[in-house]
Structure formats: C-alpha cells, structure tokens
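Structure tokens please, single chain.
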Amino acid sequence: MIYGYITRDSGKINTNWGFEAHSKYYFSDLLTTYLNYTWFNRSSGEPGDLNFPQNKIRWGMSYQPENGWVGSVSYQWNQAYKSNQTTFPGRIDALSVFDVMKGYNFSNGLKIHLSAVNLFNNKFRALPGMPQIGRTITLRLLYDF
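Here you go.
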C-alpha cells in the first residue's frame, strides 16, 4: 500500500493510494515466468499531482542457461489516463508493448544478444507533447573477464 505526503508541499497529505502484486514461478533453474500487477487510486487531481495509469500489467518469460541459447519475451500494458501535469496536460493513450530477446552465451565469457523493445512498433508518448516512441532494436556484445 502506498500513502504519503506530496514532496512539493510537506503540509499536504497525498490522497492517492494503490497496491502492487508480484509473482515469479520457476519451471526449472533455467526457465522462469513472472507477472506484475499495479493498481493506483487516481483522484481527480490538481495540476502537478502524481500522474500514473490506474492499472498496469507486465508479464514475462525467460530462459537463461549459463551457456548456450538464451531468450526472453515480455508484455506490458498500461491503461490510458489523463495527465494533469502543468507542463504536459492531456490524454495519455494506453500502452501495449511486446519485448523479445534472443542470444547466445559462449563458454569463454562472450555473449551476443539481439533484443527488440516494442517489437510491433506500437507508437506511444510518455507524456502529451513529447516525441513518439517506437521500436528499438539493440545488438549487444558482452565479455565477462
């Protein structure tokens, strides 16, 4: 449960509250899945108050052996909400994003991973008036000394 004071005015109590639930299941030492859920009680708000979707869900699955093929997939959904930030007011659309990673871990310490964040290129904005965010593809080479 979250309850506290608004940092910009220590004399005012924040009436927003919510909860988070997290779970992780181990199918084996190498294969895991997780599910996170967040619920946030959004008041009508005043300019500058906290801005957060009322419901958020994130699910993922990961296969991570020390050597050999590795991979993960995850999905995130955030409910649409109205931002009452004084600088960026307006509606923030729902977010629906799939992320994937596929890679290989060599026994000599070298790792190569290819990942796609927002695989299906669902355009979204963090706040109204901000640039749209799309798909990001990253190739990583890592070496453990």
